[in-house]
Amino acid sequence: SSYYMYRAEFDKGVQIGQRILELAESRDDDSLRVHGYLVLGANTGFQDGYRAGLEILDKGIALFEREQQSLRPFQLGNNPGIVCYTSSAFYLWWLGFPERAVERADRAIALATALNHPFTMAYALFHTGSLHMWQGEMALAQQQAQAMLQVAEEHGFQIWGSLATILLGATQMALGQPGEGLAKIEQGFAVYQGFKSPPVFYPHLIGIRATAFAQVGRPVDGLKLLDEQLKEVDQVRLLRVLSPLLLLKGELLLATTPENRGEAAAIFRAVLAGASQIGAKLVALQAATHLCKLEMRDGKAEQSGRVLAEIYESFSEGFETADLRAARAVLDAWRGER
After folding, report:
1. What pTM does this model have?
2. pLDDT tens digits for range 263-313
3. Which of 16, 43, 88, 321 has the most CB within a 10 Å radius?
4. Phi, psi (5° rounding) for residue 148?
5. Which regions in the chain score pLDDT beneath 50?
6. The three-state (H, E, C) secondary structure of the chain, written as one string
């Protein structure tokens, strides 16, 4: 399932999730049911839309909450019940419910603490820290990164240690320490790239590193990183899994030279369309914000402004998160020019 998800072959991942649930039913095994809901929900979200995936992950969470004391102990990797929480937190964020996403991620940390399973704790801290970083809550993200690094160092988890170092570096850059932050990011990358394990988190880390290069005035270096990651990627994976990297590429194209405006606008439109298809409202908001801001410079933002206003007004929470504040600022400027 992990292999198929990494290759964006979500239909095959869905089939495996269904087979796991069939096996769980035949054995009447709740532990296996939680695994099945996780695999099926995670793949369904990318294939049929995040809301459909969230409904399935919620079944895994409900079962885990109800039966966690009697579930058979897991033997390898992360506790699947906790992964249901972190995966659904990301889905909630993409669906446009950032406050609920944080609540779900915080619950994952609390349950991982109660489990007293360090590997699962490191996993939960990484995902929760990433979520806080996406929301612009850099101080909170830094706290999660520091806690994760402590767990990794105490238990010798080299992979989690490298990821914690990268996350910590990103928060330091955002909090006004660009030199020290970039050095940590490069330190973490040097370790992570030396592992033989599958680079599951690599796209996310590439985004962090490319952003860091842009923050120190090196957008061309950031573009090279993104192009290397995005080359030969099929359209499904590009728009359903790697849309944050596409948006970042559009930003860096604009930071490099104004002559890239046409290419950047095309990227923002493609991400907006793809995000709308799978219900990724927050990604659609990001794309519409970038597109409207870009087209305002040419006095051609009437359509993109209306689209941005419609998406923004459909939100019911998270208005003080970084993305919604940015959208509101662009909307105010657009309305002021009409």
Report:
1. 0.92
2. 999 999 999 998 988 889 999 999 999 999 999 988 899 999 999 999 999
3. 88
4. -65, -45
5. none
6. CHHHHHCCCHHHHHHHHHHHHHHHHHHCCHHHHHHHHHHHHHHHHHHHCHHHHHHHHHHHHHHHHHHCCCCCCCCCCCCHHHHHHHHHHHHHHHHCCHHHHHHHHHHHHHHHHHHCCHHHHHHHHHHHHHHHHHCCCHHHHHHHHHHHHHHHHHHCCHHHHHHHHHHHHHHHHHCCCHHHHHHHHHHHHHHHCCCCCCCCCHHHHHHHHHHHHHHCCCHHHHHHHHHHHHCCCCHHHHHHCCHHHHHHHHHHHHHHCHHHHHHHHHHHHHHHHHHHHCCCHHHHHHHHHHHHHHHHCCCCCHHHHHHHHHHHHCCCCCCCCHHHHHHHHHHHHHHHHC
pLDDT for 8 equals 79
Q: What's the burial of 90, exposed, middle or buried (CB within 10 Å: 0-12/13-18/19+)?
A: buried
Exposure string over 175-194, b if 16+ CB within 10 A, otherwise e? eeebeebbebbeebbeebee
Distance CA 29, CA 14 (A): 19
Look up tokens 């940590």; give the residue: 184
Tally of residues, the chain? 338
**Cβ neighbours, 10 Å, residue 49:** 18
Q: Identify which of 178, 177, 174 has the alpha carbon closest to the alpha carbon of residue 135.
A: 174
Read off the pLDDT of residues 230-249 as tens digits, 9 standing for 90 and up: 886 776 666 667 888 999 99
Contact 167, 145 (CB under 8 A): yes
Count of alpha carbons within 13 Å of 65, Cβ hemisphere only? 12
How far is residue 228 from each of residues 181, 245, 268, measured CA to CA in Å?
23, 11, 19
Report pLDDT for 202. 84
The encoded tokens of residue 34 equal 């939680």
pLDDT of residue 11: 93
